[in-house]
Design a protein that fits this description.
Blueprint (H helix, E strand, L loop, with lengths): L1 H31 L2 H10 L4 H23 L5 H4 L2 H41 L5 H34 L4
C-alpha cells in the first residue's frame, strides 16, 4: 500500500501540477502571443512531455484503482455507502475520467497537431489554408481537453483530500 501511495502521489503531483500550470498560466499567455505562441506551444508539447504525462496519468490511475480496491474491501457495498466511500467514489470516477480524457482524446489531438505542424513547417512558406484550419481546430480541441481534464482533477483532488474526514 505504501508503494502504491508513492506512485499515486508522485505521479499525481506531476500530472495535476503540469495540467494546472498549463491551464492557468501557459495557455492564456501562448494565446496572447498569437502565431509565435503557437510555435512555442508546439515546442512545449513535443516529446518527452506527452510520454511523461501519459506515464504519470497511468501511474496515478492504476495505483488509485488498486488502492481503492483494497481500502473499499474489494468494492464492498457497505463501505461504498459510507461518507468516505461516497466521496472517494466520486473522486475516483473524476480521476478515471481525467485519465480517459487525456488518453483517448487529448493525446490523439496532440499527436495529430504535431504531425500537421511538421507538414506546415516542411512546406516552407505560408501554410496551406486547409492545414492551418486543421491545426487551429486541433489546438482548440486540445485546449478544451486540458480544461476538462483540469476540472475533473479539481474534483478528484478535493475528494481525496477530504474523504478520510467524513
Amino acid at each position: 500500500m505504501a508503494l502504491l501511495r508513492v506512485f499515486h502521489i508522485v505521479g499525481g503531483v506531476f500530472w495535476v501540477g503540469t495540467t494546472w500550470y498549463t491551464m492557468l498560466f501557459l495557455l492564456p499567455r501562448m494565446k496572447a502571443l498569437g502565431p509565435e505562441g503557437g510555435r512555442l506551444m508546439q515546442r512545449f508539447a513535443a516529446p518527452p512531455l506527452p510520454a511523461a504525462m501519459t506515464a504519470s496519468a497511468l501511474s496515478v490511475g492504476i495505483s488509485g484503482v488498486l488502492m481503492f480496491w483494497a481500502v473499499s474491501g474489494h468494492f464492498h457495498p457497505g463501505w461504498l455507502g459510507t461518507g468516505t466511500g461516497i466521496v472517494l467514489t466520486i473522486g475516483s470516477l473524476a480521476g478515471i475520467s481525467a485519465v480517459m480524457e487525456g488518453f483517448f482524446s487529448s493525446r490523439q489531438a496532440s499527436e495529430r497537431l504535431a504531425a500537421v505542424a511538421r507538414q506546415i513547417a516542411s512546406a516552407g512558406g505560408p501554410p496551406d489554408p486547409a492545414l492551418a484550419a486543421e491545426a487551429q481546430a486541433l489546438a482548440a480541441k486540445l485546449e478544451r481537453g486540458v480544461y476538462r481534464t483540469g476540472y475533473m482533477m479539481v474534483v478528484a483532488v478535493l475528494a481525496m483530500a477530504t474523504a478520510r474526514y467524513l
